[in-house]
Write a structure and sequence with these properties.
CATH class: Mainly Beta
Radius of gyration: 25 Å
Number of domains: 1
Order of helices and strands: HEEEEEEEEEEEE
CATH topology: Porin
Strand content: over 45%
Strand order of the largest sheet: 1-3-4-7-8-10-11-12
Structural class: mainly beta
CATH architecture: Beta Barrel
Largest sheet: 8 strands, antiparallel, barrel
């Protein structure tokens, strides 16, 4: 009898669990996509450019994301959502004319020699892509949703730099160097405001690498419009 009781109880619990899962399937698993603009923050003077010498940083590329989201907890005016998103933060480019570190005075932001000797043209490009796993407590009011989120960001950075003499030298071509491609674990935090299925978010990605040969960026801010299906 006890065994039959346990079996009956288990069947009831499983049935109730399946019913609950069916009821909440639409809210627990939703597809979300987003499109926006990233702003990479550079590491500053002497990381692939030298202030006082010619340089150009193009650090505001388009960015996009796609993934899954849903509510772990749903109440009348608040909830707790989860997000699992693939994020591409866009490709950035840098151009600079620089001298050797030994011939550069960072306090004066100028060459130590006049005219400036041993000048090299630096041309770099790279990007960040990865997967963000976040939790988002949110407050809901009349169709509006206000949320904060945070969690780990597992990302793969890419960076390539080409070095050529600023004045062409016969027989000397470009030297190409690349950062080692390996996964890094960073983090992401953000805030968002939405109405029904649309939302606008601001996120800060901690995506600085720990390589000796480092990319130009130290972190990335992203403003994105998102839609939840």
């Amino acid at each position: 009898m006890n065994r039959l009781k346990y079996i009956t109880t288990a069947v009831v619990l499983v049935t109730l669990g399946c019913a609950a899962a069916t009821v909440h399937a639409e809210s627990f698993f939703n597809v979300e996509v987003g499109l926006g603009r990233a702003t990479y923050r550079d590491q500053g003077n002497m990381i692939w450019y030298q202030e006082g010498l010619p340089y150009k940083l193009s650090l505001k590329p388009p960015a996009f994301m796609a993934g899954l989201t849903g509510d772990i907890v749903e109440r009348a005016n608040w909830g707790l959502a989860w997000h699992a998103d693939y994020v591409y933060l866009g490709t950035v480019h840098t151009e600079a004319i620089a001298t050797t570190d030994e011939n550069y005075d960072p306090s004066a932001k100028a060459c130590k020699t006049d005219p400036c000797a041993a000048q090299t043209r630096f041309s770099g490009h790279g990007n960040v892509s990865g997967v963000a796993f976040t939790l988002e407590p949110h407050y809901d009011w009349r169709g509006f949703r206000f949320g904060v989120e945070g969690g780990p960001f597992i990302f793969l950075p890419s960076w390539t730099e080409s070095l050529t003499p600023a004045t062409p030298v016969p027989g000397i071509g470009a030297t190409v160097v690349r950062a080692s491609a390996r996964l890094h674990v960073g983090a992401v935090v953000g805030i968002s405001v939405g109405y029904k299925n649309f939302s606008l978010s601001f996120q800060h990605f901690f995506d600085k690498t720990r390589e000796e040969f480092t990319p130009v960026w130290s972190s990335t801010n992203v403003v994105m419009a998102r839609y939840r299906f």
